[in-house]
Automatic annotation (TrEMBL):
The PDZ domain, residue ranges: 198-281
Lineage: Bacteria, Bacillati, Bacillota, Clostridia, Eubacteriales
Swiss-Prot/TrEMBL keywords: Hydrolase, Protease
Record Gene3D superfamilies: 2.30.42.10, 2.40.10.120
InterPro entries recorded: Chloro_Bact_Ser_Proteases, PDZ, PDZ_sf, Peptidase_S1_PA, Peptidase_S1C
MF terms (GO), sorted A to Z: serine-type endopeptidase activity
Biological processes, Gene Ontology terms: proteolysis
UniProt protein name: PDZ domain-containing protein
Length: 299
């Protein structure tokens, strides 16, 4: 199916390199794609496997074998499936810092059941929020139903993300779950059989820091202005409130709401981390104990 090609054809080379690591996933009437993490593990979207405990996995050589859903999480839209691959292939992740707007990417999947289809494009934007999913990579590489769970890779054949949805009214506006988040959730699936949902109960907006204050305190130009905290939530219990400006979490800058959400998501539930907060012209270190998103909000 995939032939070796020369360096002058980078997209064909990537398709040949990565294609064997992409699979078809069928669960009842649902069908999509998946990516081999190793000879015994496939990662796909939770909406692809649905409630099926044993989806069928078809490999690049045409062999179909049963799979077993190890864990799935609707909020992250990820599912880990155990199987036995006859294909010796796996896809390595791309460094998070390499995924920037303008980076050329290749999407490989099974749109509408057409097996191992290759489309190309660029990273259009990062850190998008669509519905309940955040931190998404936006791409103009054509993504259609059936691409879900497949591979979005760079020209080195490294996994950039897992395509998960497309904006139906638009043209070539697709979204993928970033590889770092996929691997973070997979590690939790393997360790505990479920994914954590870190939560602090804080609502905010990206705002420009007063230039005079920023210069005086050697601060970045932006932070997250707290618009409200949930009563009894971790942020409230830590003493955060409206008009606080969150500059960093555990030393990592938070110049946007997306950056703040990303840092919280990386923090283990139960860990206490310092929030660097600008309040009334003074910098404070506020320890916040990260909680678990309430069960009612995970439904």
């Amino acid at each position: 199916m995939f032939q070796m090609v020369g360096e002058r054809e980078p997209f064909a080379r990537v398709a040949s390199q990565v294609g064997p690591g992409v699979v078809q996933v069928r669960a009842g009437r649902s069908q999509g794609s998946g990516v081999l993490l190793d000879p015994h593990s496939v990662i796909t979207n939770a909406h692809v496997v649905g409630d099926s405990p044993s989806p069928a996995i078809t490999f690049a050589d045409g062999v179909t074998r049963p799979g077993r859903v190890v864990a799935a999480d609707r909020l992250y839209d990820l599912a880990l499936v155990e199987t036995v691959s006859p294909v010796n292939a796996r896809i390595e992740p791309a460094p998070e810092e390499s995924v920037v707007p303008g980076r050329q990417v290749v999407a490989i999947g099974n749109p509408f059941g057409f097996g191992w289809t290759v489309t190309t494009g660029v990273v259009s934007a990062v850190d998008r929020i669509v519905g309940g999913l955040d931190g998404l990579i936006q791409t103009d590489a054509a993504i259609n139903p059936g691409n879900s769970g497949g591979a979005l890779v760079d020209l080195d054949g490294r996994l950039v993300g897992i395509p998960t949805l497309v904006l139906a009214p638009g043209q070539n506006i697709g979204f993928a779950i970033p590889a770092w988040q996929v691997l973070h959730v997979v590690e939790q699936f393997r360790r505990t059989g479920r994914a954590e949902h870190p939560y602090v109960g804080l609502a905010g907006a990206t705002e420009v820091i007063d230039p005079v204050v920023a210069r005086a305190l050697d601060l970045p130009g932006r932070g997250v202005l707290v618009a409200g905290v949930e009563p009894g939530g971790p942020a409230h219990l830590a003493g955060l409130g409206e008009w606080d400006m969150v500059i960093a979490v555990d030393g990592a800058p938070t110049p946007s709401v997306q950056a703040l959400r990303r840092q919280i998501r990386r923090t283990p539930v139960g860990a206490t981390v310092p929030f660097t907060v600008l309040r009334g012209g003074r910098l404070l270190q506020v320890p916040v104990r990260v909680g678990e998103l309430p069960a009612a909000a995970r439904r």
